[in-house]
Amino acid sequence: MESTILSLNNVFYHWGCIIVGPGYTDDSVYASGGNPYGTSWASGTQGNKPDAAATAAARYQGRRLAIIAGRLLD
After folding, report:
1. Is residue 60 one of the residues assigned to a domain?
2. 26-64, pLDDT tens digit by residue?
3. Where are the alpha helices (DSSP H) in 27-51?
4. Exposed e or buried b for every residue in 44-70, given b needs 16+ CB within 10 A?
């Protein structure tokens, strides 16, 4: 999953995007598997929904993105 996120980041770099990864900045990152590049979830063939740990990590990543975007606008 990390290689997929990193490959997508290369596209975003070409578009001039700023990547805001979660890094190791919150316990929710560790609880969901410890991926410093971003939250990911493999649903499998059954289409399973993300568990509570992955959802918490995704919410944290969204909050972090909003905070960084706000700082860039100031």
Report:
1. yes
2. 999 888 888 888 888 888 778 789 999 999 999 999 999
3. 27-31
4. eeeeeebeebbebbbebbeebeeeeee
Residue 72 tokens read as: 């860039």
Tokens encoding 31: 């609880």
Report how many helices (DSSP H) and strands (DSSP E) the chain contains, helices first.
Answer: 3, 0
**R_g (Cα) of the chain, nearest Å:** 13
The one-character DSSP state at 26 is: S
State which residues form the domain around 30: 22-35+50-66
Number of domains within the chain = 1
65 within 8 A of 20, measured Cβ to Cβ: yes
